[in-house]
Each structure stands twice: as structure tokens, then as C-alpha cells.
Design brief:
Arc Repressor Mutant, subunit A; 2 domains; 5 helices; extended; transcription; DNA-binding
Length: 125
């Protein structure tokens, strides 16, 4: 007969493993210094051209921004729209409906960051 404590521990380890794997996947896709910043700017401003995006974020090189946009496009967070009927050709980036599913996560992170900054200022720790 199985020990109920051992069974419960195995279930907890399984759930913990699933949670860790899910968080790892999420961080892989949206982690790093720039991806969430890009997503936030696109969600706030709507369609944005490359140079405007680079100026708004500040501190990001054109090469890094280009690579991050490609990654975000591959993962369905950003859509690249080319207006070839105009001269010169205009390229804009917009957030997708899928990227807007991160809105609650971004808001929670923002609130947590604000609280954490206040705790540090007040030397709560």
C-alpha cells in the first residue's frame, strides 16, 4: 500500500515541475532586456515605424531592435506591415491580438515593480 504522504509529494513535484516548465517557456519567449518594452510600446502607441520605436525605447541599437522584432514576429506578438504602395516604402510594426493576451501579466508586473520600488525606498527589507 502506498504511503499517502509520498503520493502527495509526488503530485506536488509533478505540479511544481509543470509550473517551472511553463514559466521557463514564458520567460524564454518574452524575457530579456527589450522584448516586454517593445510589446508595451506597440500596445500603447499602435502602429509604429522602426526609428520611432527605437527612439521611444531608448538605448537599444538598431541591430538588437531588428533581432528582437524578428523574434517577436516569429512568436506571434508583433506584425510587420509593409506599405509598398508608398515611396519610399514604409514599414510599421503593430502588436497582435495575441500580444494583448499579455496585458494582465504586464499590468501585474508593473504594479509589483511599483510596490517593490516603494519598499526599497522605504527600506522595508
Amino acid at each position: 500500500m502506498e504511503n499517502p504522504v509520498e503520493t502527495e509529494e509526488a503530485i506536488c513535484k509533478g505540479r511544481c515541475g509543470e509550473s517551472l516548465s511553463s514559466v521557463e517557456d514564458a520567460i524564454y519567449v518574452i524575457g530579456g532586456k527589450w522584448k516586454l518594452k517593445i510589446i508595451i510600446v506597440l500596445q500603447e502607441l499602435g502602429s509604429v515605424r522602426f526609428n520611432e520605436l527605437q527612439r521611444t525605447i531608448g538605448g537599444i541599437s538598431a541591430r538588437v531592435l531588428s533581432n528582437e522584432l524578428k523574434d517577436l514576429e516569429l512568436n506571434g506578438f508583433v506584425k510587420r506591415v509593409v506599405h509598398s504602395e508608398q515611396t519610399p516604402v514604409v514599414v510599421e510594426y503593430i502588436s497582435t491580438d495575441y500580444s494583448r493576451t499579455l496585458k494582465s501579466v504586464i499590468m501585474a508586473l508593473s504594479e509589483w515593480g511599483r510596490t517593490h520600488k516603494n519598499n526599497i525606498r522605504e527600506d522595508v527589507f
